Amino acid sequence: MFTSINPATGEAGEGIKELDADGIELALGRAQTAFSAWRNSAPEQRTQLLGAIADQWEANKQHLAETAVREMGKTLASAIAEVEKCISGFRHYAEHGPSYLEPSEVQTPGGRAVARWLPMGPVLAVMPWNFPYWQVVRFLAPTIMAGNVALLKHASSVQGCAALMQQLASAAGAPDGLFQNLAIKSDKVSDIIADKRVVAVTLTGSEGAGAKVAQAAGKALKKVVLELGGSDPLIVMPSADLDEAAKTAVTARVQNAGQSCICAKRMIVHAEVYDAFLEKFSAGMKAVKIGDPMAADTGMGPLSSVQQRDTVLEQVERAKAAGAELLFGAEKIEREGAWMTPGVLVGLDPESDVAKEEIFGPVAAVYKAADIEAAIALANDVPYGLGSAVWTQDEAEIERFARDIEAGMTAVNALLASTPAAPFGGVKLSGHGRELGPWGMHEFMNLKAVMYGKGAQAGD
């Protein structure tokens, strides 16, 4: 039985029964049956379904958002924004998906070849709790458009969100077995990956979870896409708009209580503007209103769980032991639930173990860099490479950062955020493969070459 705990109150939610072996077998059989029909569906049928799902989400926006708040603690405003982003994701693939499926033709010495994008089969997604809807939709929408079918293994703490997503897909007219939530624990994942009916797997989660899934997929010789988080840098140069840079940095650290893979965690600031930025950033972090996540004026709610909160506090203690100074905050709030205050660390040794880790909570490490070379070196001096952000008005500096920062994404004078139209993913220990746009859809499709001899016509 899965039972979510409201991180704002400590109260237990409604339980969801765990799927047993017979239930898993039934789900896999339904997925295979659904694929045998859906693979031959017309693009128009797929876009119609995506639009209908988006309509269902629109009609149930408040219910979806409140479920996420109760299960993982994000503010209601951010939960509504997440649901709206999901709706835009479904509508993006409904609008642009058919063009992503268009074949392309090349001339060959013997005639010509047509490259076609064909579906592969049931795809398993192993998803985390921090964005319980968007993490799934950025896999689900392209999966439907590709002609594949989707199996979801969601985090144990957000099974209510997972069940609700399946219900809305069914209400929109999704064929039986097209999208199924597998209410299972992690120890069942390897066997499902090994099942011959499952053709590929995608995971968003920790480095350890990614390694286990990649090992299982490799053993079965199946395609895998991994997004494993990061320790993203935000670099501030002398020409930057410091007010906007500091404001964005605060948002990065307290959005979703700091539990976002692609929001900046390390602030790397040029020595010329270090003091001014630190003053503005610290003032912004201290001003964040912590409170009831359902309240409209709350800036930050609790973390997702007491365990997650305590993990962050333990990392802060190790940072202090490594020589860092805690300027303020990063303290446990003595009330029921997973509460803490935002905090800022300075003087952390970049070579210490904790400096190489991802701090998944509302705590920032601020570093001083002598010049652009030092800033880039420090940005790259972690084992991760998911996102990054740079603040500068200098075009030459922008080009250097875009070229030399080791990351899958770089935001320029903006908060880094995913979008349905652009590729999403990282390098190094942040994983491999891409989600979103045509790139994400094509990850789990068969790029088939159809070769035509001279004089042959398509369909001959």
From TrEMBL:
<keyword id="KW-0521">NADP</keyword>
<dbReference type="GO" id="GO:0004777">
    <property type="term" value="F:succinate-semialdehyde dehydrogenase (NAD+) activity"/>
</dbReference>
<feature type="domain" description="Aldehyde dehydrogenase">
    <location>
        <begin position="2"/>
        <end position="450"/>
    </location>
</feature>
<dbReference type="InterPro" id="IPR016162">
    <property type="entry name" value="Ald_DH_N"/>
</dbReference>
<dbReference type="Pfam" id="PF00171">
    <property type="entry name" value="Aldedh"/>
</dbReference>
<dbReference type="InterPro" id="IPR044148">
    <property type="entry name" value="ALDH_GabD1-like"/>
</dbReference>
<dbReference type="GO" id="GO:0004030">
    <property type="term" value="F:aldehyde dehydrogenase [NAD(P)+] activity"/>
</dbReference>
<protein>
    <submittedName>
        <fullName>NAD-dependent succinate-semialdehyde dehydrogenase</fullName>
    </submittedName>
</protein>
<dbReference type="InterPro" id="IPR016161">
    <property type="entry name" value="Ald_DH/histidinol_DH"/>
</dbReference>
<comment type="similarity">
    <text>Belongs to the aldehyde dehydrogenase family.</text>
</comment>
<dbReference type="InterPro" id="IPR016163">
    <property type="entry name" value="Ald_DH_C"/>
</dbReference>
<keyword id="KW-0560">Oxidoreductase</keyword>
<dbReference type="InterPro" id="IPR016160">
    <property type="entry name" value="Ald_DH_CS_CYS"/>
</dbReference>
<dbReference type="InterPro" id="IPR015590">
    <property type="entry name" value="Aldehyde_DH_dom"/>
</dbReference>
<dbReference type="InterPro" id="IPR047110">
    <property type="entry name" value="GABD/Sad-like"/>
</dbReference>
